[in-house]
Amino acid sequence: MAPRATRNQSPPCDPDGMFAGMVVFLVHNGVQNRRLQIWKQKLVQMGATIELRVTKNVTHILAMNPEALLQEVGSERLGLFKGRVVLYQWLQDSLSSGEKVPEELYLVNLDADKSSSDYNSTENETPNPKKTKLSPENSPHTPSPKTPKALNEDQVTPLQSSSPYSPPDLNSNITQIFGKLINIYRALGDDRRSFSYYKAIPVIERLPFKIQSQDQVKGLPNIGKSMQDHIQEIVTTGKLSKLEHFETDEKVRTISLFGEVWGVGPATAQKLYEKGHRTLDDLKNEESLTNSQKLGLKYFDDIKQRIPRNEAQEMERLLQKAGEDVLPGVDIVCGGSYRRGKASCGDLDIIITHPDGKSHRGFLPKYVKHLKDMKFLREDLVFSTHSEEGTDSGVDTYFGLCTYPGRELRHRIDIKVYPREIYAFALIHWTGNDVLNRRLRVLAESKGFLLDDDGLFPATRGSLGQRGMRGSASLKFDTEKEVFEFLGFPWLEPQERNL
């Protein structure tokens, strides 16, 4: 078993980790000290360098909100800063997903007329149903019975339930090419361009007609002039010259390939290319690779293979039975595309809690050991626990490789153990899909809250119109449906969330 983080022992630092090359200044204002120390530890562990003041070497400033940033750093120093200022939520989401998410979603812009991040999006990115109005009898002085006890907020009237979302998928010729460009730009470290295609895909998927001309997509959200030109080329020729160029360019092709190895980010892929490596075989004797990256390389072909639904279902049952062996009454759910009803899934996303709200603490190490004794878990990638370190809200994490009983083919598995009081948020986050999660975050922000996998936190609005500080305690909800209703988003069963 890989060593896990404890109070007295920190995991070894990985110079080529997820945050390699980043020199970070952390704004302390508005952040609980315990959370700050965990974030600092993770940054250093995954390759970043922490600076105690804003120097010319700093590449990133992380802040909870613009007000805290201005108070601690000052407008004059910020005016001279050449790097990027991003919200702490970017770090949290990167750690949760196991890879760096696009920074463009979380940039802090001190211009009052512009959005600071994806959380302050345009109307085109909010859900289509009409906006919810406050019920007149629910004033700030009269809490609604459905309002969580943690906060006396105005009651929002849930939207009427809508029919399941079922995109026509008439333009897969376009979205498949855009999907390849997303992966290429992500591998190259160009998050801005990667995200532009990511935003365009759901818009195109929703269209009830097959695109024949770029004129048909003019004026649509997230489809700018260059995107329109790409669409015109695809519908006219059946291909895209930009993609063909990338696929024939040795550097781009190689870096993209290396980026598909688990644990290898854009910076590491670039370094490997500069060392002269061109194929996966070239990497087999590369000493700079971490143990996790070596495992990602060794089982590259295995990890790429999708898991048929019937096999994922059998593995979920195995995991549930093994959980009962360790802790009776434990709740274990397989999320991701499996929970959304897909015919296959790329990996297993396992979300765990216990109804009594306390027995989840210390469960993960025992569970992992039991699964290893069963020869189900085979290799460790990431293993860290926080629930035993005095924080009830700590989330325990295990990333590794597993095998279907009787086989040696490796599959990726992520196991997350959450306190019961925030389990509903974990289910929403790890079920997805990404488009739905993003819309829920935007909607939560519009109502004065910050949403992630460990809660829905009240936030105050800053004077610059930016989102404010995150509250110390999350609102309490027992079910996913209650979260949807509070946000005013139509309830979707897990299989209806393939937006």
From TrEMBL:
One of its GO terms (biological process) is double-strand break repair via nonhomologous end joining. Residues 116-168 are annotated as: Disordered. InterPro entries: BRCT_dom, BRCT_dom_sf, DNA-dir_DNA_pol_X, DNA_pol-X_BS, DNA_pol_B_palm_palm, DNA_pol_lambd_fingers_domain, DNA_pol_lamdba_lyase_dom_sf, DNA_Pol_thumb_sf. Keywords: DNA damage, DNA repair, DNA replication, DNA synthesis, DNA-binding, DNA-directed DNA polymerase, Lyase, Manganese, Metal-binding, Nucleotidyltransferase, Nucleus, Transferase. Its main location: nucleus. It is found in: Nucleus. Its EC number is 2.7.7.7. It catalyses: DNA(n) + a 2'-deoxyribonucleoside 5'-triphosphate = DNA(n+1) + diphosphate. GO terms for cellular component: nucleus. Its cofactor is Mn(2+). Gene3D superfamilies: 5' to 3' exonuclease, C-terminal subdomain, Beta Polymerase, domain 2, BRCT domain, DNA polymerase beta, N-terminal domain-like, DNA polymerase, thumb domain. One of its GO terms (molecular function) is metal ion binding. Residues 14-108 form the BRCT domain. It comes from the Eukaryota. It is an enzyme of class 2 (transferase). Residues 117-141, 154-168 have a biased composition (Polar residues). Pfam families: DNA_pol_B_palm, DNA_pol_B_thumb, DNA_pol_lambd_f, HHH_8. Belongs to the DNA polymerase type-X family. DNA polymerase that functions in several pathways of DNA repair. Involved in base excision repair (BER) responsible for repair of lesions that give rise to abasic (AP) sites in DNA. Also contributes to DNA double-strand break repair by non-homologous end joining and homologous recombination. Has both template-dependent and template-independent (terminal transferase) DNA polymerase activities. Has also a 5'-deoxyribose-5-phosphate lyase (dRP lyase) activity. This is DNA polymerase.
